[in-house]
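Quick one: structure for this chain?
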Amino acid sequence: VLDLLVDNSSTGMVNLDLLLTQKLPKAGSSPEFMNDGGYWQLRGTARAGQTHGQVEALLMGIVAGFVTVTLAHEWSHYLGAKLSRSTYSLSEKPSLFVFDWDFASNNLRQFYTMSAAGSIGGAAGLLALFAAIEPANSGRAALLAGGLASFAFGSIIEWPVLVRTRRSGDPMSELSKLKPATIGGAGTGSALLGLACWLTLA
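Got it. Here's what it folds into:
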């Protein structure tokens, strides 16, 4: 998912925030899958006069900001599940998603507590980034833009589900309505908001 959000050849964060603005002449990302593991790579080409450090700051700034706020968001979902004494199972493999929600065992109050905690935690993570980082250069502006894009991505996906759940009372049914086009639209919207943030700060 992160690879598609960062580089999908048209509306990813790298496509809009780095290539469209010509901050880098070439940039992209791709995963590599192997039998016993794999890796995900970011790549970029420096403009005349740019150092390798500046290229790395632009690429890593976007990803670091996005991942930081996403982790705050997801761990706050987990905190909400703990505080509401919800039933869940921890994910077997390490990932951004900390746990699996038990829809059959939990009630709507627990679902809303868990969901709201994620949004609150994501917002707190974003505010912490803006409080700690001065956008003194393009790399730092990229970090803040990536954080804002992460918060926007989660909000665009989750908030409509919460609104629909208030009417239907069935969160699992509402979540099942999420389609790849919805995820893609959220990715585009969050990347555009990140671009607007970057252009404002840089």
